[in-house]
Amino acid sequence: MRVACIQSSYIPWKGYFDIIHDVDVFVFLDDVQMTVRDWRSRNKIKTAKGTEWLTVPVAKVQRQQLIHETQIAEGDWQQRHLKSLQHNYGRAPYFQDYRALLERLYCQPHTNLSEFNRLATSLICDLLRIKTRLICSMDLNPVGTKDDRLIDICQKLDARSYLSGPSARDYIVAEKFQAAGLKLAYKDYAGYPEHPQQYSPFSHEVTILDVLFNCGTQAPHYIWGWRANASASL
């Protein structure tokens, strides 16, 4: 049993789905403090002028507020995001193939940020044929903070190994995982091949929608499938 835990994000980049694909259980770590002006509520798309932020407006964030407590502010953000996607990706080869996805995300009301993020991630996992089990940290009632919280989640799931994002090296103490009988590994995002993209210069740091709209069913190759070809060539 291999587990990964990451806060939910607004239609995240391909690396997020790469981690989900690599584990047996993926935990949305949404019972931790909400961060503003961060990936929780925004992401980038590629445009003819470079990149552009799409930001979900949220109600005023209180001190110590948790991600799953964060409400989406009223407004026409869904239509604005949909219009921006249509404008910048309308001529992408597979844009129309994902019309049903866009309707679920932008043509129905959403009030809770965590619920919206988890819905979007789940729908995209289905499109990518990722079979990983997705659960919410709140359902496990984890205790502790930082890496102690991660270890508690792993133990409640009877996990044997934990896959972390590289940025967590700043606070993870490897010896704690070893003492708990957990194998610790860090995800390496290096080496992603460039996928077909409408505008130059190329950017990896954009939402997964960029890969889907430009690559269609070939999207998994540019997220994890390329590694098999790289290994075979060694």
**Low confidence ranges:** none
Number of helices: 8
Number of domains: 1
- How helix-rich are the residues, as a percent range? 25-40%
Q: Which series of helices and strands comes N to C? A: EHEEEHHHEHEHEHH
First-last Cα distance: 29 Å
The major pleated sheet works out as: 5 strands, parallel
Computed structural class: alpha/beta
How would you describe what is shown here?
- This protein is α/β, with parallel strands linked by helices and 234 residues long.
- It has one domain.
- It has 8 helices and 7 strands, in the order βαβββαααβαβαβαα.
- The chain has helices spanning 14-22, 77-89, 99-106, 113-127, 146-156, 174-179, 208-215, 219-232; strands at residues 2-6, 25-28, 42-47, 50-55, 133-136, 161-164, 183-186.
- The strands form 2 sheets. Strands 5-2-1-6-7 form a 5-stranded parallel β-sheet.
- β1, α1 (14-22) and β2 form a beta-alpha-beta unit.
- The longest helix has 15 residues, at 113-127.
- The mean pLDDT is 96.
